[in-house]
Specification:
It holds the Pfam family Glycos_transf_2. Helices cover 42% and strands 21% of the residues. The chain is of the alpha/beta class. The chain has one domain: Spore Coat Polysaccharide Biosynthesis Protein SpsA, Chain A (Alpha-Beta Complex), CATH 3.90.550.
Length: 256
């Protein structure tokens, strides 16, 4: 039988894990169900002790496991990017899973048709066992994103691997807004294609970083957006007004 392991895959899916046995099975099953199987799956594990690594070991298909990767989530995601050999890279965390069986096929078709460097769709949130209807995907412009009007949901983003060579990877000093920082760099040089449908399901729970520390996350996001204010100063001013309103609401919420 011919060995095709040396052939570069279309997709590199990076999954960061740390004691993720409770949710990882859904993540793995959603990848296995994809109609497009031209995939390598890269697991970046932070030192799991709960059966996560055993689940990964039993997982069939083309995979690579990076063990005992410390230094935070940004570093873990970057390690996955560096290990990737596919044409397109996606981060599908162990809390998330693909919404339908044709996600990768749909994204591959969009890349081929529009010749872009990145593609994203919407995310459907799973909270308390219920799927919340997703927000529509708004047309992306740099100004609308800089103003905070348009959002780019990280679990539903696919990036041409060569684009990281142009704009860099995730800022490893950031804990919350590393994805927004990357979109602001990438959006300066490459407009994405969008898919107006849910591509990924995200579990919202008490352990989610953004849920556990919303005020710190918003403060870091503000500092990140300020880095790029010269690219769209009016849009940044609009964002500041939204930021102040949101922070007042979060502080009022925290006080009760």
């Amino acid at each position: 039988m011919q060995n095709n392991t040396h052939i570069k895959p279309t997709f590199s899916i990076v999954t960061c894990t740390w004691n993720s046995a409770a949710t990882l099975a859904d993540t793995l099953a959603s990848v296995q169900r994809q109609t497009c199987q031209d995939v390598e799956h890269i697991f970046v594990d932070g030192g799991s002790t709960d059966g996560t690594l055993e689940l990964i070991a039993a997982y069939p298909g083309r995979k690579r496991v990076l063990r005992d990767v410390g230094g935070g989530i940004s570093r873990a995601m970057n390690q996955g990017i560096e290990a990737a050999t596919g044409e397109y890279v996606a981060h599908l965390h162990s809390d998330d899973y693909y919404a339908t069986d044709d996600v990768l096929a749909t994204v591959a078709e969009r890349f081929a048709r529009e010749r872009v460097d990145w593609v994203f769709g919407s995310v459907q949130v799973l909270k308390d066992g219920e799927l919340i209807p997703p927000y529509p995907v708004l047309p992306f412009t740099y100004r609308s994103f800089a103003a905070g009007r348009a959002s780019v949901p990280h679990p539903a983003v696919f990036i041409r691997r060569s684009a990281f060579g142009r704009v860099g990877m995730f800022d490893e000093k950031l804990k919350y807004a590393m994805d927004i920082d990357l979109w602001l760099r990438l959006g300066q040089v490459a407009r994405p294609a969008t898919v107006d449908r849910p591509l990924t399901v995200f579990r919202d729970h008490a352990g989610s970083v953004s849920s556990a520390n919303k005020i710190k996350a918003r403060q870091e996001e503000f500092q990140v957006r300020r880095r790029y204010m010269s690219q769209a100063p009016l849009a940044f001013g609009i964002y500041c007004l939204r930021y102040m309103k949101r922070m007042r609401a979060l502080r009022a919420e925290a006080a009760h």
